[in-house]
Amino acid sequence: MGRQPCCDKVGLKRGPWTIEEDHKLMNFILNNGIHCWRMVPKLAGLLRCGKSCRLRWINYLRPDLKRGVLSEAEEDQIIQLHARLGNRWSKIASHFPGRTDNEIKNHWHTRIKKRLKILGLDPVTHTLVKQKEKVEEKIEINPEPNSLKEQGETREKENEAKMGLDETIDLLHDYEELCGSLDVGLWLNQETTNSNSQSPSLSLKDSPNPMGESSSMKEDSIQKWVDSVDSMLSWDGFNQLEQELLFLENLQ
DNA sequence: AAATCTGCCAACCGCATGTTG
DNA sequence: ACAACATGCGGTTGGCAGATT
User: Is the CB of A87 under 7 A from strand C?
Assistant: First the structure.
């Protein structure tokens, strides 16, 4: 026979995590580490399944998380990596210490996809779509204006479309500069082959990181964190959580 | 001021893969 | 070798906040 089930899901809490739950989970992990996620909620006194605890820790509570919006440089690197790796968010996230796959995935769907569309690029294949036709369609909205007002509106639309085109060309140029030296076409071909065969050649260990970050650097930073777990009990975020919890307790 | 729309993000769900007995 | 389970991953969704009508 195999192992025991992960969780029975009956009577388990779902939805947003409270400060108190965060505090319990973080306190438990900092004191005991992670050996088995199934046991974590039970031992930490949480009415959550292990999966939910794991997700909360990885995406929100981990002390090595980098907060704040992604920089333009990070965004550019995500585009490069996506061209190369596709939707393998965890692989992409591994190039950004302190960033989570969920964060990068969300950022991709909310920001980067739009940016690529403006560039006239297909976010999936990273290839050009017929941008010029789109602009011409926009100009053709009202081909024969009758009144002066309509003529003015038409001119406005034309200018808007032309400005959009100029902006797009600039952005496209940037994109070419960004990806040109990286031979996206070659990557795409490699990736098509590799994704079919699940080749390990794209793993962090084997492929050099274009930004010069290595998996050993990441491991090193994690090791530093592990080494300093004791002092973590006084780190800022944790203190803040503790204060918030005390505040809530005082309210009750 | 209220209603509606839009963007964002945390969290969930289900599947794939790895691990254990 | 196989079944049962744990873990990791990517897709999707629900709900909140701010913007717009």
Answer: yes
